[in-house]
Amino acid sequence: MKLGKILSEKKQKTIFSVPSDASLRDAAKKLCEHSVGALMVTDPADPSEFVGIVSERDIIRRCCSEDRCNSADNVGAIMTKDIIVATSEDNVDYVISVMARHKIRHLPVIHEHKIAGIISMGDIVSSIRKEDEIRIRHLSDFSGGTYGSSIF
Q1: What is the CA radius of gyration of the chain?
Q2: Domain 3-144: top CATH class
Q3: Is the N end or the C end of the chain the one with fewer CB atoms within 10 Å?
Q4: Do residues 24 and 54 touch, judged by C-beta distance below 8 A?
């Protein structure tokens, strides 16, 4: 299965972002408001230019692990600048191995030189589960003798 298929089936297609000079509190509010786990980070001078990605995990680590979360902290200080991306043509198995190797749960997907969306590990698992259910149903119908029958 290709990432493009998962992206097309995803309910939330909007790419939410936050400027790099936004506070961690503002980023956390935006994550909660939109029920997403990661935000693309933009250049404050050019909101169309993505300069990084920040996840809920990044914010929690900064606020809890390092025991410092104050109003002076901003997204630019904790964002991931070297973004790992995938393409809509990438195979899901390959993407899972990349995400596991780098211990990331959110991955921007590029299509035609633009970010088409962000795929989460949850999106991938959900899509694989749905595909497996269809496959099981098909095989069950086939082995049970109802395959090709007009009566179900």
Answers
A1: 19
A2: alpha beta
A3: C
A4: no
